[in-house]
Amino acid sequence: MSDTAGGTAGPGKKLLTLTDLVFFGIVLIQPIAPVPLYGVAQKLSGGYLTTIILFAMFAMMITAVSYGRMAALFPSAGSAYTYVGKGINPHLGFLAGWAMFLDYLLLPLINCVWIAAAMHNVYTPKVPFAVWAAIVAAVITLLNLQGIRSSARQNQILLFGMFIVIGFFIVLALRYLFHAQGWGGIFSTQPFYDPATFNMRQVLGATSFAALTYIGFDGVTTLTEDAENPKRNILLATVIVCVFTGLFGGFEVYLAQRVWPEWQTFKSLETAFLDVCGRVGGPALFNAMGVVVIVAAFGSGLGGGLGAAKLLFGMGRDNVLPRTFFGHVKAGTSTPTYNILLIGLLSFGGAVLLNFNGSAYQQAGELLNFGAFLSFMGVNAAAFYQFGILQRGGPRRILIDIVLPAIGFIFCTVIWWNLNPLAKTLGGIWFVIGAVYLASKTKFFRETPAIIDFSEG
Hints:
mainly alpha, Amino acid/polyamine transporter I, 16 helices, 70% helix
């Protein structure tokens, strides 16, 4: 074993540098992260998506600091579940894990929803949304049953394609704005603040949805054991990934807002960014962005569906869930067939049900944020307790040990509180089920809860 760089690795295994970690984080989040949520977020914020992305970045940056510090304290962990469980209390850790579990189930659903909405609204309006949801869920399920995986090489090619397409958008959008309005078209405060239309309460409420842009940044902490100088680099990488996502994504949507300020006129909120691309780059850029986002969503749904199925299998194998169903694998393979089929049914059924209550993409996104922000609150609370109360990092430093995690907790709580009522209701029911299950399995919290192995997913 080698620990010369401050981390550990197997014999001959190269430790990951700060650049490697940042690249990994960008791959997880993707440079087109704001594209699918652009139209819905514009409506929710009243036309201030750039502002709410920057608001969300502030909360995510502070939370990233807490993740990085907890990763240094518990280097073999890599999730809110373990940070809260080891940093505060194992029962609270289980509940944080239960909240994370909801996100695993929702990730394939939200990708299914976006692809189905794009195909129905843009390419084949005569084919109902429910039919496309069934097709997408069925294809993803069949590919996962066949054991088809995306390779690292394919992900790199997709990332390169994203940067090429978004690069063309940026250049063409700048050209369009300059030719239409000169420098005044490019530089404007309107996407950030207009006293005639700005509503702080509406903006804060929409920030919870814009936070979808950052979902996945915490995945960097899963590489703690393989990182070079992890105490420094994991923290730096998570913060850099958040800042890059906020600034780069914010620049994308800033240009889109300047190109198409009349957001009320979008034909479809889910595919609104494609319309902006069409305005600056014609059908070529419209279709190129559409293809890139659909392929990215399909890949995310494929990986997310398998990850959720494997997590369910691990919980079934360890008797966290009933083993007969969830611990089943196809004979002679390691494929958790029942779980893959269940995830496919949940993706289709959830897409159809959520579509009855307005934008299915909005509902799924806010429900996903219910679990994500509970986890973020837990990590900030754990960092506050470990460093501010127990002084695990040495002499207490007021700013980094107390003020930052406290502000992070408060900001994440405000964002979580401003989720829409449906998300809070469904998420609350899920959380209560987890609490009741935990109480029943631990003799009303007197015994240590079962371990959820998130490495399975």
